[in-house]
Amino acid sequence: MLRTLMTGPVWLSYGQIMVESTGEFAELGECFGGQRNGLCGATIEGHLRLMTGLHTGTVDFTAELHDGEPPLDDTWEETVETSYRPLARPTLSGLDARDCWTLDLDLVHYRVRYCGWGMDAAHRNGQQDGEPPVDRYLLQFWPAPPAPDRVVKVTSKQAAYWHEFAREQPFPAEIAARKLENARQDEARRLAERAAAWGGALPGERLERTMNGQELASFDRALVDELEQTDSQTLRWIARWAARRACEEAGYADDERIAGILDRMDRGADWLETLNGPPRQVEPGGPASATVHQFITQAYGWFADRDPIDNTITVVSATFNVDSFSAAVETVWLASEPFPDKTRLLTELHERFLSNPTV
What we know:
By secondary structure, this protein is α+β, with helices and mostly antiparallel strands. The protein has helices at about 30, 120-125, 155-170, 170-195, 205-210, 215-220, 220-230, 230-250, 255-265, 270-275, 310-320, 325-335, 340-355; strands spanning about 1-10, 15-20, 40, 45-50, 55-65, 80-85, 90-95, 100, 110-115, 135-145, 150-155. Helix 6 packs across helix 7. The chain is rod-shaped, with a radius of gyration of 37 Å.
């Protein structure tokens, strides 16, 4: 029994037609790796790559489904066979997928016979607009267990060229090994680039989630690593010291309000009291009143042209981070902004707290 799955002109480009059930595109060489024939590539599971003589234009094409192996038709100039099993309902289209046909095939193993006629003429002359197709092709399926591909008949230079091409392609195992090695190299490059962005070593989870951690690590990774090994109390001292040094370097130290904020920070007041001062006292029996705090949304960071109070609030607020390491790293990076040479602040920090601590 014969059933025609599709028939008619197929538009193609680059001399290729695809029968696709994987949803993924495969490189041409991969489709033929380990095969003898170069006209019907079936190395990629669920995928057939069919070569034509014509580079761009339309070819006459027919796809058939048979109950059993059909007899060979010697009128075709080229004939090859291979095995194929779709992974889903396959579609047939030219390489650019301008037209697409769904092929009514079950998800079983098939033997495939691909026949062609007029390949050399189509390759040599091409096809002008409005001209009828020069080459034509037949694709036949019938249920059969997997078997090696074979070249049944070859007469054209184009077919001979593609058969030679197929035999030069690496076997699937070699292709898989190359892909694995390429993936390994890509991952190694990715990790190396990531490490470089973090100052020469990959960050741990604690550093990675720290605000400004990457910025400070890329500038001085050794310092960041030392901070990560420093006890919590010292990290708090470092954060407060850095906030004060930033205000001093920026010339804010003589501002009475800023001096009060820094003093309350150093005494260990909570965040609201540090920024706003102690809560107002209420006379016994007097009316209760709530302290009103105003918060302004602004760009995060230290900016030279911003109001000194805003910069101070930003850097002092960083010292209150729940995690002491994050508080130190975030504050130190913010505090380095008013220094023309950031290394001066970091050198002072190291000498004061890490080399010979004098807290």
